[in-house]
Design goal:
alpha/beta, 8 strands, single chain, TIM Barrel
Length: about 270
C-alpha cells in the first residue's frame, strides 16, 4: 500500500480545535494527517506537528490543491505556500481536491503541473480526489496511472461507489475513503450495530474496519480524545465474510457531498 491505511482527517476543524485534535492524535499514535488548502487550517496543522516534536520522516502529510490554484503558473506556487504554512519542505501526498469547474483548467494542465511539483521534490506522491471514471481516465492519459497514488472519494456503507472503485483498482490506484462514517449516519444503522454488539466493538470500529478490509485508506476526524483513541482499535478488528456481505447490502447511493458548481457528473 503506497499510503497509510489509517490517518487523521481535519475537514471542518479550524483554529485551536484543529491544533488540539492533531496534537492529541499524534500523542495517541496517529502518523498520517490529511488537510487541504480550502480547509484554511494548514498553518494550525503545521503548528501542532512541529510542537509534537515527532521526526518529519515518521509522518505522512497530505494536502489538496484548491480549484482556484489549478493553472500551471499558480499550482506550484500555491503548493509552496502550503509547505510554508505546514512548516515542512515536502508533502508525502498532494491531491487535486476537486475537478476544475466546467473544465476551466484542462485535466492535462493541472496534472502536468502536479507531476512537475513531484519532480521538483515538493511532494513524494500525487493523486486526485472526487474524480469520476472519466476524469481518472483523463488524468491517466495526462501523467500515467503509475503516478496517481490515490483517488480520495466519499465512500461509506450507504455510498459504496463501486464503479469508481473497480476502475481505480484496475489501474493500480488506491482508494481513500472520506466521510467513512457518513457524518455519523451509519453508526445508527441496525445492521452495523448488531455486528458491533456481536464483536464487542463500536459501530465506528466496524465501519472503519470494513473500509480498510476492502483495501481503502480511511481518514476519520474527531475533536474528542476518547473517539480519537477508540478509532485506532479499528485497525485490529477483523470482519467475517458474512459481516462484509451484510454491509455490502447497505449501499443506497446516498451521497452527502456534491457542491454546486464544483461537483462533476457522478458515476
Amino acid at each position: 500500500m503506497s499510503i497509510p491505511a489509517f490517518g487523521l482527517g481535519t475537514f471542518r476543524l479550524q483554529g485551536q480545535v484543529v491544533i488540539d485534535s492533531v496534537s492529541t492524535g499524534l500523542e495517541l499514535g496517529y502518523r498520517a494527517i490529511d488537510t487541504a488548502q480550502i480547509y484554511e487550517n494548514e498553518a494550525e496543522v503545521g503548528e501542532a506537528i512541529v510542537a509534537s516534536g515527532i521526526a518529519r520522516d515518521e509522518l505522512f502529510i497530505t494536502s489538496k490543491i484548491w480549484v482556484a490554484n489549478f493553472a500551471r503558473d499558480r499550482l506550484i506556487d500555491s503548493l509552496k505556500e502550503s509547505l510554508q504554512k505546514l512548516q515542512t519542505d515536502y508533502l508525502d501526498l498532494t491531491l487535486i481536491h476537486w475537478p476544475s469547474p466546467e473544465d476551466q483548467v484542462p485535466v492535462e494542465e493541472f496534472m502536468g503541473a502536479l507531476l512537475e511539483a513531484r519532480q521538483l521534490g515538493l511532494t513524494r506522491q500525487i493523486g486526485v480526489s472526487n474524480f469520476t471514471v472519466d476524469l481518472m481516465k483523463q488524468a491517466i492519459a495526462a501523467v500515467g496511472a503509475e503516478h496517481i497514488a490515490t483517488n480520495q472519494i466519499e465512500l461509506h456503507p450507504y455510498l459504496q461507489n463501486r464503479k469508481v472503485v473497480e476502475f481505480a483498482q484496475s489501474q493500480g490506484i488506491q482508494i481513500t475513503s472520506y466521510m467513512t462514517l457518513a457524518y455519523g449516519e451509519v453508526l445508527k444503522d441496525p445492521v452495523i450495530q448488531q455486528i458491533a454488539d456481536r464483536l464487542q466493538a463500536t459501530p465506528a470500529h466496524v465501519t472503519l474496519a470494513w473500509a480498510m478490509q476492502l483495501g481503502y485508506a480511511v481518514i476519520p476526524s474527531s475533536t474528542k480524545r476518547a473517539n480519537l483513541q477508540s478509532n485506532l482499535h479499528a485497525r485490529t478488528l477483523i470482519l467475517s465474510d458474512a459481516d462484509m456481505a451484510l454491509i455490502a447490502g447497505l449501499d443506497r447511493g446516498h451521497r452527502l457531498t456534491s457542491p454546486k458548481g464544483i461537483a462533476p457528473q457522478w458515476d
